[in-house]
Amino acid sequence: MSEEQGTQAQPVERQEARLYVPDSLAATLPAMVRHSLAKLPAERQAEFVELYRKRAKSTSVGYLLWFIAWHYAYVGKWGVQFLFWFTLGGLLVWWLVDAFRIPGLVRQYNEDVAVSLMRDLAIMAQAG
């Protein structure tokens, strides 16, 4: 029997990863963010939730702005917004197609916000 087989791995104590955010919010977050968030203490998770709720966008507001052709600006895509205006919403074809794309645009924006906030919290944790 070699030495490697004879030694047993010692258990490493780990803090139990637990998610303290509401289930409705957790369901909308990317898996990587949920996993990283679960490793943080409850106070940091509460800080994340507060910041996320301030920065996240709403699909219903996205539809209101779609109606007046401001929906790309709402999700921070100013270049696409100007192109949309310049082409008159793709002669309204682009505008009609966007009626089905609004939930995805808002979801992608909110996922980007979550990843960005998680990155910022990780940097703050390393610095502090």
Q: How many β-strands, per DSSP? A: 0
Largest sheet: none
User: Could you give the order of the helices and strands?
Assistant: HHHHHHHHH
Bulk shape: elongated
Could you characterize the architecture of this molecule?
With 128 residues, this protein is mostly helical. The chain has a domain at 58-128. It has nine helices and no strands. The protein has helices spanning 3-6, 23-26, 31-38, 42-55, 59-67, 71-74, 78-86, 88-91, 93-127. The longest helix has 35 residues, at 93-127. The radius of gyration is 22 Å and the shape is elongated. 14% of the residues are buried. The mean pLDDT is 86.
Record the SSE blueprint.
Blueprint: H1 3-6, H2 23-26, H3 31-38, H4 42-55, H5 59-67, H6 71-74, H7 78-86, H8 88-91, H9 93-127
Helix pairs in contact: 4-9, 5-9
